[in-house]
Fold:
Amino acid sequence: MKGIGARKWVWFAVMGMVLCGLTGAGVDEASAQEYKKVSKRRGLVLRNCILADFEQYNRLRVNKAGNRISLPTKAKRKAASLGAKYKYFACQSVDDTGDRVFAKLNQNADEVQFELGEDDFDELPKNTGNFNSKCKSVRELGSLEIYKTPGSPHFSDCRRSSFGFIVLNGGPSIGDSCLDILDSDGNKLASMGAYYPAGAYKYRAYACWGCSSSSFNGGTLAAKARKN
Structure:
């Protein structure tokens, strides 16, 4: 579910399953001595950094600004933007999915993790310890599931301006009458109540409906997640 927050993500806990864009589960921090500083003249080369599906290319180059990473030319991949100018980098194996890139704005700053995705380097949630204790598994939203930042204009009640979640016919079954919305640290931000009957859809849930007392829209929800 990219696009809901910048560095903090909004998560939907549904029957113990989390619908999200990134997992970040069980991540160990890179030790301080593994970090290398970006040179203002030459940038930085991360050696022996083996990324999933790119085992033959084990060297990454960070530009001198610290905001872009490039694979070797033979990999035929464009340089990936990191969204900020980081000064310190490390590469470390976390699990069997390959190494991850770790970055810091300065020596005392929080650690940010990046995982090579299909098109770019994906920033992972900073802290998922509390989050994973509340949710059993993580998956991406499917093609038949829709997160709506505002409601639909034809609504005449509170659903018109509040966020919602819809499952189209043929999508997964969700039996919960109430969905909790968590940030990536496991803090509850809001909830959505199921709307019955679902009409032409398999399942619908909205903020401000049923169990939920939330009446704000998706933009406010994203702001709360980023503030956390």
In short: The helical segments are 129-134, 218-227. The radius of gyration is 20 Å. Residues 1-9, 14-29 have pLDDT under 50 and may be disordered.
